[in-house]
Amino acid sequence: MDRVLSSSAMISVHFAASGEEAARLDLEECQEVEVLGNTVRALKRVLAKKLGVPRFRQHLFCQERGELNDKVSLSPPEELQLVILSFWPSEEKADQKFIAACRENRAEELEAMLRRDEDGRPALHIAAEEGHVQCMSLLLEALAGVHAEKDKPTLAGATPLHLAALNGHLEAVRTLLEAQCHTDARTSGGKTPLHGEIVRLLLEAGAEDLPAEDGLTALELAQKNGHWDVAQMLAERH
Description:
238 residues, alpha+beta, Ubiquitin-like (UB roll), Serine Threonine Protein Phosphatase 5, Tetratricopeptide repeat, 5-stranded mixed sheet, two-stranded antiparallel sheet, 11 helices, 7 strands, elongated
């Protein structure tokens, strides 16, 4: 970065309605905003962690500039006002459009809808199953549940990690692991997310060598499918 924030740099955010302080970012947090791009969007991402409110629900205002869109650059010190929006009630037609955006990896359309609707749990399963990492990241940012279970009878109890692993989507698995999903979650049939070449990544993330499917251990499953390098790695763990 060419510009280094001074020790006095600060961003303060107050609730627009009450005037009560919502957050005050110290130097380290201001630097985090700068690393993320030094925009309103970057600030919202930091505020999401501090306040537990997805950035899609945050509207930021400045007394001199009015409402600030996500691309506006920041120049600390800043004094801003915050309005937290409620999610719009869910409607069947809107739900179908939302799910379609996840299935077809239309990230820009999904982001626009996330500003209105938080119904991200089933959508995260679909995006993980399809391996659409960009959409997954948006859903996770909207606080979609990484541990949520899928109701489909054939995969009852399956988490998004099960679906990403089962379909061999390595980057999707990495994304979910970064979101601190449970690596050893089981379906109602006792299956864990340990599948094929994904095993290596899951074991590195701390997953246990539990029965994977059809009564087979992950080692036996790797041998059955001819993944000999994974089988050797699993054998070395015993």
